[in-house]
Design a protein that fits this description.
The structure is a single chain. By secondary structure, this protein is α/β, with parallel strands linked by helices. It contains eleven helices and twelve strands. The chain has a domain of about 190 residues: NAD(P)-binding Rossmann-like Domain (Rossmann fold), CATH 3.40.50. A seven-stranded parallel sheet has the order 3-2-1-4-5-6-10. Strands 7-9-11 form a three-stranded mixed sheet. A two-stranded parallel ribbon has the order 8-12. Helix 2 links the parallel strand 2 and strand 3. The longest helix is centred in the N-terminal third of the chain and has 19 residues. The chain is globular.
């Protein structure tokens, strides 16, 4: 049995799909029974509950041969760091008490860097650093999966792109970042969960097909949105925070977003291994955008 947290999300959903296609028994964990219907239709066992409840997670991990774990990212709820700590501690406690022998944990590039006071060093990645530290205390075989920037992260700004004809953020326009489709991350995780061939703690980077600037990614996304002239505008950090707050993001999350972007800009968040065959994945930004074009128009 393989337990998959976040089974209705981008990476977890892909993992369930790939594992079931290979005939693996899967326990699909999520908060919404309706959204778990697709996993159930693939033959997975739906397991509905709150990842912040360690007793619920212990049942989800019971007798599992392996588990995929992640902390759901909800940037529209205030108290982001505290919420992440609650879920992270719950996951770690449940894994410890259930004794799952193989764990693949979704993290991020930059998670090796301490977040520092108020997570100012790396923004959102600071909570992932803390979670990696918690998971490292487990007596299990652990993969810390560190992907680059999800291409899907651009989709949160689609409404604003359509309204203004541009994509605005605080990443410097000349900074090229590893960008990866979530389906590639799911494929790597599913393969690890099936093989279970590592021992100890291993860091695995997933860098996508190429490093891209935000402008390069937006130029490809634009035609999928029916906006072939879509461009990128870099705005000052304080204006970016204000823009996010104006869109309804809590103050703490807006600050963490801009702190994360500063870490991209100054190279604090970057691949440690460097790009190579072992961490480059196949889906290009063009292929990713083609899969979106019908749904987004």
């Amino acid at each position: 049995m393989i337990t998959v947290l976040g089974a209705t999300g981008n990476t977890g959903g892909r993992i369930v799909e790939r594992l079931r296609a290979a005939g693996e028994p899967v326990r699909a964990v999520g908060r919404d029974a309706g959204r778990l219907a697709r996993a159930a239709g693939l033959g997975a066992q739906p397991h509905v509950g709150d990842a912040g409840d360690p007793a619920f997670l212990r049942r989800a991990f019971e007798n599992a041969d392996a588990a995929y774990v992640l902390m759901p990212m909800d940037v529209m709820t205030s108290g982001y760091a505290a919420q992440q700590a609650t879920v992270g501690e719950s996951i770690t406690e449940a894994l410890r008490s259930s004794g799952v022998p193989y764990v693949v944990a979704l993290s991020s590039l930059g998670a090796e860097v301490p977040g520092g006071p108020n997570l100012d060093a790396t923004g959102f990645m600071g909570t992932l650093h803390e979670q990696e530290q918690r998971l490292a205390t487990l007596d299990t075989n652990l993969v810390l999966l560190r992907p680059g920037l999800f291409l899907e992260s651009f989709l949160h700004g689609v409404d604003a792109m359509r309204a203004h004809g541009t994509h605005a953020d605080s990443i410097d326009p000349d900074v090229a970042l590893p960008m990866v489709a979530t389906r590639d991350v799911g494929d790597v995780a599913a393969d690890l969960l099936r093989r279970r061939s590592w021992s100890g703690t291993v860091v695995r980077e997933v860098l996508g097909a190429a490093d891209l600037t935000v402008g390069e990614a937006v130029a490809v996304l634009g035609p999928a949105l029916g906006m072939p002239g879509l461009s990128y505008v870099r705005i000052p950090d304080d204006e970016m925070e204000a823009l996010l707050r104006g869109a309804g993001m809590p103050d703490d999350a807006a600050r963490l977003h801009v702190a994360m972007n500063r870490a991209f800009n100054d190279g604090t968040v970057a691949s440690l291994a460097g790009r190579g065959p072992g961490n480059t994945t196949p889906t290009t930004v063009e292929e990713w955008a083609r899969t979106l074009s019908g749904a987004l128009r």
